[in-house]
Design brief:
alpha/beta, Dihydrodipicolinate Reductase, domain 2, 2 domains, 6-stranded parallel sheet, 9 helices, 14 strands, 23% strand, binds NADP nicotinamide-adenine-dinucleotide phosphate, binds ligand 3JN
Length: 350
């Protein structure tokens, strides 16, 4: 039975770039919220956030805050999730976690509803939301995998600064102003807060997102590679990623090369499948210069696909350009869609 007045929902990280979008998305899609509890660190406790036209006071995230909560959406970083997700579950909440803390745990479903909604049925309290770059890619490629089989993916990303949080957005604008005024740039956040060196993002492209691992890949690249295999339930799929940060505020773009299993697949076949794919909009008309761009995808729910071409040397190889709002489908929207799926499957009312 569905709860009469809706669900008690906590948003952990409610003052952040993703958390703010979670509040907006819960409201815009009319998820049944009986009460909203915005949580943050001590720094923002006492601040107000707007929800359904009302100011709600932000509280400090602590174990006891989850008493009576049905659903907790986490986006305050992996350490906060590791410290508090199990506390929320102990209090009876289902956790949808936007961090990488539990994504590869075998007991934790990693879900993009259009792709693997049924995996939610195996949850044990925590569900992980994949990395933003993974989500937009798998949602566009899964229908092709189902239709033609998929052997290999090679992806290069062109990621927006909003993926690195509100401080990174501020840094990009400050640096842009400094460059235009001939001043030295302030470099404190990017490529990643936790690393030794910081570089200018304004008027630049940085081939590092998250820290480097010993094998030469960054953690962001490994997230894309490992998460894709888990979501598609295919350990034999070849996936290689290169992740790059650009001075774009919102909207991740991806150049994706795929090799399909089936023979004699055409560009038309691929377009036909993508035309029917849930959450995907085809924007592919080179003669009229129609293709997806980050500025157009920002604030939209869909994943946009264009520039679809057959490789000139490999008949089963195709190139695609995939763009989506990284804070919406890449994070907040996907989390709220998971909440709707949980509700639909009757899993929120247990
Ligand atoms: P952000 O703009 O920097 O916001 C961080 C949020 O976390 C703020 O609300 C902050 O509260 C809160 N926070 C920080 N430390 C905390 C603590 N100790 N206890 C409770 N709350 C704390 O970052 P963001 O871009 O929203 O990203 C937040 C996290 O979401 C990331 O670290 C990442 O794990 C995840 N994320 C996932 C994706 C994805 O690909 N799906 C994309 C982006 C981010 P204050 O206002 O008090 O500082
Ligand atoms: O940089 C981006 O565009 C996406 C960033 C995601 C992110 C940022 C900090 C920590 C993540 C994530 O969700 O993969 C994490 C994390 O590992 O939790």
């Amino acid at each position: 039975m569905t709860k009469q007045n809706g669900y008690n929902v906590a948003v952990v990280g409610a003052t952040g770039a993703v958390g703010q979008k979670m509040l907006e998305t819960l409201e815009r899609l009319e998820f049944p919220v009986a009460s909203l509890l915005p949580l943050s660190s001590k720094r923002s406790a006492g601040k107000k956030v707007l929800f359904k036209g009302e100011e709600v006071t932000v509280q400090e995230a602590a174990p006891e805050a989850f008493k009576g909560i049905d659903l907790a959406l986490f986006s305050a970083g992996g350490s906060v999730s590791k410290a508090l997700a199990s506390e929320a579950v102990k209090h009876g909440a289902i956790v949808v976690d936007n961090t990488s803390a539990f994504r590869m745990d075998k007991d934790v479903p990693l879900v993009v509803p259009e792709v693997n909604e049924d995996d939610l049925k195996n949850h044990q309290g925590v569900i992980s939301n994949p990395n933003c770059s993974t989500i937009q890619m798998v949602a566009a490629l899964e229908p092709l995998r189902k239709a033609f089989g998929l052997e290999r993916i090679i992806v290069s990303t062109y990621q927006a600064v909003s993926g690195a949080g509100v401080d990174a957005i501020d840094e990009m604008y400050l640096q842009s102003k400094q460059v235009l005024e001939g001043e030295e740039t302030t470099k404190e956040i990017l490529p990643t807060g936790g690393d030794k060196k910081h570089y200018q993002i304004a008027y630049n492209a940085i081939p590092q997102i998250d820290k480097f691992e010993d094998n030469g890949y960054t953690f962001e690249e490994l997230k894309m590679m490992n998460e894709t295999k888990k979501i598609m339930h295919d350990e034999n799929l070849s996936v290689a990623a290169t992740c790059v940060r650009l001075p774009v505020e919102t909207g991740h773009s991806e150049s994706v090369f795929i090799e399909v299993e089936k023979e004699d697949v055409t560009v038309e076949d691929i377009k036909n499948i993508l035309n029917e794919a849930p959450g995907v909009t085809l924007q592919d008309d080179p003669a009229n210069q129609i293709y997806p761009m980050a500025v157009d995808a920002a604030d939209k729910d869909d994943i946009f696909v264009g520039r679809i071409r057959q490789d000139l040397d490999r008949k089963n190889g195709f190139h695609l350009w995939i763009v989506a709002d990284n804070l919406l489908k890449g994070a907040a929207l996907n989390s709220v869609q998971i909440a709707f799926s949980l509700k639909k499957l009757g899993l929120l009312d247990k």
